[in-house]
Amino acid sequence: MTPDRTTMPPHSVHPAGNPHLADALDLAAAGVPTLPLREGKLPFANCRTCAKNACGGRPNMKHAGTCHCPAVCHAWAAATTDPTVITSPAWAAAWRQAAAVAYHPGGAGLTVVDLDNAAAITWARTTLPATRTVATTRGEHWIYQGVMQSVNAVRPGVDIKSLMSYARWLGPGTGTTANLPAVVRALAVKEAQPARKATQAHTMPFKGESGACPHRTPVYLDRGIAMAVQQITDADRAVHATVYRAFLAVLSRHGRCGCLTEGHVTRLFTAAQAKGESARHCTDAWTNARTALGL
Description:
Layout: H1 19-29, E1 34-38, E2 42-43, H2 83-86, H3 89-97, E3 100-103, E4 110-115, H4 118-127, E5 132-135, E6 140-145, E7 151-155, E8 158-161, E9 167-168, E10 178-179, H5 182-187, H6 218-233, H7 239-254, H8 262-274, H9 279-292
Parallel strand pairs: 6-10
Antiparallel strand pairs: 1-2, 1-3, 3-9, 4-6, 4-8, 5-6, 7-8
C-alpha cells in the first residue's frame, strides 16, 4: 500500500527559528518535493546564471537540459527532497525572505483539487469522492493519490495542481487520502466541440494525404519548439503577451496532430518561468491558447 505522504508530524524545533524551513524539512523527509515561496505565493526568480533559461533547465525536467544550479531556480522544478539542498547556503537567502512553503504535488505522486470559494466546495462535496482536505485562505485543497496534468479553471473556482505545478503547504489537513478518481481526471478533458459543416471540414486538416501526421519529424518539431523558447527568452517587455503568442504558435501547428509531448511543454513552461512567469500564468496562457484554437 502506498503510504499517505501528506501526513507529517510537526517539527519540534524550527531550524534557525524559521518555521518555513522546518516545514520544508518535514515534507522532504516524507518524500514530498518542496521549495520556498516569496510574497504573493510566487516562486523566487532565477539566479543570473539561469536568467533567460541560459542554463537549459533543471536536470529533473525531461528533455530540459543539464542545469546544476544550486539556487532555488526554475520555479516548481526546483522542488526537492534533498535536505542538504534545502539547508544549503545557496537556499539560505530564499528562506530568510520566504513567506510560505510550497510542494510539487506531481513529484509526490499527488493531485490537488484547489477549490477557491464556497460554491466550489459545495460542488466538490456533492460530486467528488471524499479525501484528505486542507483548509486554505478562501477555500479548500482536496488531495488525491495519483498524478495528472495540471489545469486551471476546469470549472468556476476550481484548479487542478499536479504535474508541472506547485501548491502551497498549509498543513496535513484531515481525512484519508483517496485514489485519484476518474471524475477528477475527466475535468481536464475539454468537452467535444460540435461537428463542423462539411464545407469547413478541410480548412484545418489533422492529417496529411498519406494518413500520417505531417509534423512527426523531430527536426521540424524541435525547430518549432526552439523558436518558441527563443521568442520567450528574448522578450524584454510584454512577457505575458509574448508567452501567450508563443504557445499559440506552437499549438496552431502541433496541437491537433498529437506531436507534442510532456517534454516539449516542459521546455516552453521552463522558458516562461525563467522570465518570471508563475506556473499558474503558464497554465492559464496554455489553456487560453487551446481555447482560442478550439482544442
